[in-house]
Design brief:
heterotrimer; A alpha/beta; B alpha/beta; C alpha+beta; A: alpha/beta; Rossmann fold; 2 domains; five-stranded parallel beta sheet; B: alpha/beta; 6 helices
């Protein structure tokens, strides 16, 4: 009997599974194992290549519910919500998790309201409560200053969105097998009053902040708008994304999509470099779960140093050119060695 | 154009200091303000009103003190307010909050738009906007960063997503949650403040919005906070001083070694 | 005259080490001493390295140091946080730099007498943090209150943004324990509200820029903490209209605001642009920022309404109201970022501190416009309109060479100070003379006035050991 499965909502873009889905599978796999139930991925889209679907199984799914339709090609909240509601009614999963992405943070609340389900946003830790089997959802609250553990004692399913990049993607195991199920949808599921007219790529965003392994973020200590090019260059050398404090976004030195913190994005990269950022609570809320934090700041008493694994007290504009140059040399050296 | 804007009063965090010893926020004496992200919704609403005429009704669920937030929104240029306040609403999670606000909006009657801040800076969930859309069955755009076109029947918006923007078209009425990029909020004027002081803002309880008692407050909330604890925020790693060419070189070299050690480069 | 002083020798350093301990003496470590070679005046020519830095712990140690300095003929420059803007804490003749940074204790909070006794190295804002919970506050409010030390505030008789209602530092200094230039430890004043017993030495010492003695204990008057505040940001079409409102606010309104800050067109437009601030300012030619504080929200609300109505009746284009931290911070940011906004134009600036009678501000701004035209340099003008204290800031035209800048700056300053003097003003309201402005003293003070000060200095410091080269030259 495989009732009350654990589900992850897989995300695809142009038919390609997004990394966040594998991160979710990694988390959910251990939940399903603890509960001794199956782990299923729910994947909506259109014309998704078979090997992409298979990849979800390699990454830990026991089942894939594959729902393909032209309307589902791109994310649209109404049909995605209707399909997910129908699926929940039909299969009765006990846990449904999605990434805390623009998609997950839109569709899960939409579904949770309709299913009278408990939903917790942007979790960083998930676990199963001993004895009850309830999902324990832990998330930073009040600007990341405290962690709150939340559960849903009665309502089902238990739902959560999970902070992207807060766990490694599940390892690939091509020996794994699983089942692909293609449910037949009832009429009326696939209606959207909202039309997607276009997608406008924002190249300035570069690598998506929330998916980047390295984020180089600049604050007021950078001095002026023109100096942001050093932040961009450092990010480029490190293969990372560009972030910014609220203050410099307010000043128009860089656009809002780069803002990290309470009124911007929350990031969890392997390396976060805070350049000329003092570390106001609002900013810290957006980056404190980064694995390694490096800070460069003029003020030796800046709050950011308390969080930093490595700090340099000095003027960012004196230090960055040297750092960029030396990192470039390192990269050139590595390339040479690779050629040998 | 009739616009409804649900707002939340939150603790001001810009002025908050950290307790050096415990690494926790010192919350005593902290002021309450309109959720900063709601200000963008308010500004968008006012601009649409300036363009099309009509009225803006701002509503908030919270204690009596939340009246301040409502009056501040009116001072900025909203026309009317409603405070949803009763002990029975206390302890609501995002489900019960979305339900309560959507019941209140039903009572407000016909409207063209519901505008919400993308999330509140205290709860930080971003679930109530989509939640209201779900309860009221409204077309929804979250993370809205620009209104590209609007007339009486439809609206085209940009929605900020990973790697770019979606261009969406929605029929009216609909609900938008907005991000900072969409507007720069104005400051209230003296005349606005004076007007806000005089306006009668009704307070609605559960009966006024025809709420099912089982759906509001803690009782109506599926989730429970089990415990809260303080994460270790302090790492206090190595700190080098780099003030001249020599010490900069040395600090940068050490940083690169550090990054290599951690296999970050 | 620097030849009168002797060089610092190893022997002297050993004796200093005997007094304060080796870890409190910096000697032969250029990098660490460099921090003590300048204050917040940006131009390098006002910096000077000390020969040795000492960090005494109390009055006794300072007394011994002063006696030693007189014996060896070594100048001593006292220093608090080094956040000054006139070079007052810079050891212009080298010698001993005496930092009070270790003397940072709040010794007593006397709630019954509403007084506090503090050491000179306490960060000013720290005092308020400590007494806040008792519903008290210290009203001295320099703009740098988060970094500056109270000792430096007393030495400069610091003013700041709240001076019209609360006055400047000196108003709150009731007593001083100090070490005289010749080494005696003497107390003046105390926790007494009234005191006419002898000369008012306390207020001779306040604002003496560290030339007459070194404060070791300071008795401060405290006030009940106002619990509500609000700010108005008021746009006017021109300077005259804006300034005409100021006396009306103070008299017709019967309300003393805590601050009336003024910004001229170039100041607020640069700052707004720098901050990306979207308040519509295109029509405005001058801006006032008026702060009111008080017992409770209702009172503050009725006061800002009165003032706001007065502004509107007297030609204000628009009155914005800020009554919570977010909005208050937003409008103060405009005022605080003027200097930084002009750093984008050029980092080379001379931040001035002139004072004129309030009604002469429009004439000053008009005169300034002529200087701006004549020398082709931006001089944004902003500051404390309620006190007539304006921080006109001469900014280097980015097209000028450094040589040209150095050539014209003294000319610009001379003309600006002459204009100030003509309008009944003076050259420093709150930053002090220090080394930066002493050559301009003659524009606002005659020889007799200077001589009275010289005689006082000579009487108290016969060897001219303590902070020489500041305010005026001895001959």
């Amino acid at each position: 009997m495989e009732l009350n499965e654990v589900w992850v909502l897989a995300e695809q873009k142009n038919g390609i599974i997004q990394t966040v889905s594998y991160e979710l599978l990694n988390r959910a796999r251990s939940l399903a194992d603890k509960l001794n139930v199956s782990l299923a991925a729910v994947l909506m889209g259109y014309d998704i290549p078979a090997d992409e679907v298979q990849e979800l199984i390699y990454r830990g799914a026991d089942k894939v519910y594959l729902i393909e339709h032209e309307v589902l090609k791109d994310f649209l909240v109404e049909p995605y919500s209707s399909v997910l509601c129908y699926m929940i009614d039909t299969y009765n999963p006990q846990i449904v998790i999605a990434g805390a992405t623009s998609t997950g943070r839109t569709v899960l609340p939409h579904v949770a309201m309709r299913k009278r389900a408990g939903l917790t946003a942007d979790c960083t830790i998930l676990d199963i409560e001993e004895g009850t089997g309830n999902l324990l959802q832990t998330r930073p609250a009040i600007g990341g200053n405290i962690l709150a553990t939340i559960k849903t004692p009665e309502a089902r399913p238990q739902m959560a969105t999970v902070r992207p990049h807060s766990m490694k993607p599940a390892p690939r195991d091509t020996g794994r097998t699983g089942e692909i199920i293609k449910p037949v949808l009832p009429d009326g599921c696939l209606v959207s009053r909202v039309k997607k007219l276009d997608f406008i790529e924002d190249e300035s965003q570069g690598i998506s902040l929330q998916q980047a392994d390295v984020v180089v973020a600049g604050g007021r200590g950078v001095g002026k708008a023109e100096n942001f090019k050093y932040i961009e260059e450092l990010a480029k050398v490190l293969g990372g994304a560009v972030g910014a404090s609220r203050d410099v976004v307010d000043r128009g030195w860089i656009t809002y999509p780069h803002q990290v913190g309470l009124s911007g994005k929350t990031v969890t990269p392997k390396l976060y470099m805070a350049i000329g950022i003092s570390g106001a609570i609002q900013h810290i809320a957006g980056m404190q779960t980064s694995e390694t934090i490096v800070a460069i700041n003029k003020d030796p008493d800046a709050q950011i140093f308390k969080l930093a694994d490595f700090g340099i007290v000095g003027d960012a504009m004196d230090i960055l050119p040297v750092l960029i140059e030396k990192l470039k040399q390192c990269a050139a050296q590595r390339e040479q060695e690779a050629v040998k | 154009m009739r616009i409804v804007i649900p707002i939340k009063q939150v603790p001001e965090t810009g002025n908050v200091k950290m307790d050096e010893k415990t690494g926790t926020m010192i919350r005593e004496g902290v002021e309450s303000i309109i959720n900063p992200l709601d200000l963008y919704a308010i500004e968008v609403g006012i601009r649409l009103k300036e363009q099309f005429g009509g009225e803006i009704i701002v509503l908030s669920m919270g204690p009596q003190k939340a009246m301040e937030a409502i009056r501040e929104a009116i001072a900025m240029g909203c026309d009317q307010g409603v405070l949803i306040s009763d002990r029975k609403f206390g302890g609501a999670d995002t489900w019960a909050t979305s339900y309560t606000l959507s019941q209140a909006i039903k009572r407000i009657g016909e409207f063209d738009l519901v505008l919400c801040g993308e999330r509140a800076t205290d709860g930080d969930t971003g679930q109530v906007g989509p939640g209201i859309a779900s309860f009221l069955d409204l077309p929804l755009s979250t993370f809205t960063s620009e209104i590209v076109y609007i007339d009486e029947h439809r609206i085209q918006v940009k929605r900020l997503v990973e790697g770019g923007y979606e261009l969406l078209e929605l029929p009216l009425p609909c609900l938008l949650t907005v991000v900072k990029e969409i507007s720069d909020p104005r400051l209230p004027t003296l005349r606005g403040k004076q007007r806000a002081k005089k306006i009668d803002v009704p307070v609605w309880g559960p009966d006024d919005i025809d709420a099912n008692p089982g759906n509001i407050g803690l009782k109506g909330s599926p989730t429970r906070v089990v415990k809260t604890f303080h994460p270790q925020v302090s790492r206090n790693g190595k700190k080098l001083v780099a003030r001249d060419a020599e010490s900069i070189n040395k600090a940068v070299d050490e940083l690169i070694e550090f990054l290599k050690d951690r296999q970050l480069i | 005259m620097s030849v009168r002083y002797n060089a610092v020798t190893q022997e002297l350093v050993d004796k200093l080490i005997d007094i304060v301990g080796s870890k409190n003496v910096i000697w032969d470590d250029q990098e660490r001493m460099e921090n003590y070679a300048h204050d917040e005046v940006a131009e390098k020519e006002y910096a000077h390295m000390p020969d040795v830095v000492v960090k005494p712990a109390d009055a006794k140690e300072i007394s011994q140091i002063m006696k030693l300095a007189n014996e060896y003929m070594i100048p001593v420059t006292p220093r608090a946080a080094g956040s000054g803007l006139s070079g007052g804490a810079v050891p212009v003749y080298g010698g001993i730099l005496l930092s009070v940074e270790r003397m940072n204790r709040i010794l007593e909070i006397d709630k019954e007498n509403l007084m506090a006794v503090v050491e000179p190295g306490v960060v000013t804002n720290e005092i308020n943090n400590v007494i806040k919970d008792d519903g008290l506050f210290y009203a001295g409010y320099p703009m740098s209150l988060e970094t500056c030390f109270i000792g430096g505030n007393v030495a400069e008789n610091a003013g700041g943004g709240k001076a019209i209602k609360y006055g400047v530092t000196g108003r709150y200094i009731y007593g001083l324990e100090m070490v005289m230039p010749t080494g005696e430890i003497v107390e003046f004043g105390g926790k007494r509200v009234k005191d006419v017993t002898g000369y008012d030495i306390v207020h001779l010492m306040v604002g003496a820029e560290g030339t007459l003695g070194i404060y070791t204990k300071i008795v401060l008057k405290l006030l009940p903490l106002p619990t509500a505040a609000a700010d108005l940001l008021v746009l006017f079409k021109d300077v005259d209209t804006a300034i005409n409102v100021v006396p009306k606010v103070m008299t017709n309104g019967r309300i003393i605001p805590t601050a009336i800050e003024f910004m001229d067109e170039s100041s607020f437009k640069a700052s707004c642009q720098y901050l990306n601030e979207t308040i519509p300012v295109a029509e405005a030619g001058a801006m006032l920022l008026i702060e009111i504080d008080g017992e409770n929200k209702e009172l503050v609300e009725s006061e800002y309404e009165t003032i706001g109505e007065l502004c509107i009746a007297n030609g204000a284009i628009e009155v914005y109201v800020a009554d919570n931290y977010t909005t208050i911070e937003r409008i103060w940011k405009i005022r605080r970022n003027v200097a930084e906004a002009f750093k984008v134009v050029s980092p080379h600036q001379s931040l001035e501190d002139i004072v004129v009678p309030i009604s002469n501000i429009p004439d000053f701004v008009r005169g300034l416009a002529e200087i701006i035209d004549k020398y082709d340099v931006p001089i944004p003008c902003y500051g404390h309109a309620g006190d007539g204290n304006l921080h006109a800031t001469v900014v280097k035209n980015p097209d000028f060479t450094m040589e040209r800048w150095h050539e014209i700056l003294p000319k610009v300053l001379t003309e600006m100070y002459e204009l100030t003097a003509q309008l009944g003003g003076t050259i420093s309201g709150e930053h002090g003379i220090g080394s930066k402005r002493k050559h301009y003293m003659r524009l606002v003070m005659n020889e007799d006035q200077l001589n009275v000060m010289r005689r006082i200095k000579k009487a108290l410091d016969p060897n001219n050991i303590l902070n020489p080269g500041k305010i005026f030259d001895m001959e």
